[in-house]
Amino acid sequence: MSSHPAIVDVSAARRMGTAVSTVISGKPEAVRTALVVMLAGGHLLIEDVPGVGKTMLAKSLAKSLGCSVRRIQFTPDLLPSDVVGVSIFNTGSSDFEFKPGAIFANVVIADEINRASPKTQAALLECMEEGQVSVDGATYLLAKPFMVVATQNPAEMEGTYPLPEAQRDRFMARIQMGYPDSDAELAMLNAHGANDPLSQVAAIASAADVSTMVDAVSRVHVSDALAAYVVDLVRATRNSPEVRLGASPRAALHLLRASRAAAALSERDYVLPDDVQRLAVPVLAHRLLLTTEAQLARRSPQQVMASIVSAVPIPQPN
Fold first, then answer.
1. Is the distance from CB of 168 to CB of 285 less than 8 angstroms?
2. For the chain, where do the domains classified as CATH 3.40.50.300 start and end?
3. Cα 127 from Cα 142, distance rounded (Å)
4. Which of 17, 43, 194, 314 matches a 20 to 30 Å C-alpha distance to 124?
5. Residue 8's closest CA among 222, 237, 303?
6. CA–CA separation, 51 vs 103, rounded Å?
């Protein structure tokens, strides 16, 4: 295994993490996972109760990027055309003209995504997977890099529509903010009470910088044994007696990409089993549908996924 210094330069991403951490106090793991997803070219889902900083994390990450950012507030009356765009007849040219929707940006903040109707949620599917939009038979490419950072309230809350399995599977990782500890909450009151914390965040990396880092991360080395370990973890979710719908082949690809990004952030040009284990829950748990028995036992997908990780043998070095 290689031991020389990392050939992948993601120093700009680490500086972004430092900037975001000045806004999001006491949540280093959430900030790190957000950076991992960005470097892996994926999309991020942030789920938690209102007021714990979901939108603030999305906004601060977007502001540290010097590229186009659009925010969409998802509501029950939001239409698919508001998201992707619409063709309007131009009387001057006697032809239809495409008016791009809010999805045409490098970073799209989809706020409270599960308050919109399933039809509007579904408008994001093609955008997130293929980086393009199809309207009235015409296809329009989205800018690169393209990242959706979506926030949602827990599914049990009033007025929410749970994301369907196909939609959840498009998100590389899901994180939960949780309440800050007392020290972090006190620091937040002192730092944010008098001014807008986002005003202190400057653009650190451009769209071209992010594209370069994403390309570089894809070259991080993954041994055959570690690739097999990723497959074993994903297959174990399909065979678990607590799971009725396991992780997809797309999930295995996402876990591998995220592990490469985590290795690069740790200044390594090779992936370790620790990288895979650390990301298995945020990358795989939100894709699992538990059995009725597991739900009655009050088991969460995160707990089930953690149990699976502890049960699957770790590849041993040669």
1. no
2. 1-219
3. 8
4. 17
5. 222
6. 25
CATH topology of domain 1-219: Rossmann fold (3.40.50)
Q: What was the pLDDT predicted at 297?
A: 94
The single residue listed with the structure tokens 């200044």 is 267
Phi, psi of 108 (to 5 degrees): -115, 120
Q: How far is residue 122's CA from residue 113's CA, in Å, rounded to a whole number?
A: 11
> Which residues are paired to 44 by β-bridges?
149, 173
Decide if 208 contacts 215 (C-beta within 8 A).
no
CA 234 – CA 239 distance, rounded (Å): 9
Q: Which residues of the chain are in CATH 1.10.8.80 domains?
A: 220-318
Residue 111, classed as helix, strand or coil, is strand
Q: Any idea how long the chain is?
A: 318
Token reading at 242: 């607590």
What is the rounded distance in angstroms from the CA atom of residue 136 to the CA atom of residue 129?
19
What type of residue sits at position 217?
V
Task: Report how far residue 98's alpha carbon sits from residue 83's, in angstroms, rounded to the nearest whole number.
Answer: 13
Alpha-carbon span 153 to 214, nearest angstrom: 29
CATH architecture of 220-318: Orthogonal Bundle (1.10)
**Whole-structure pTM value:** 0.88
Locate tokens 């699992």: which residue?
288
Backbone φ/ψ region at 188: left (φ over 0), alpha (ψ -120 to 50), beta: alpha
Helices 224-239 and 301-311 pack at an angle, to 10 degrees, of: 130
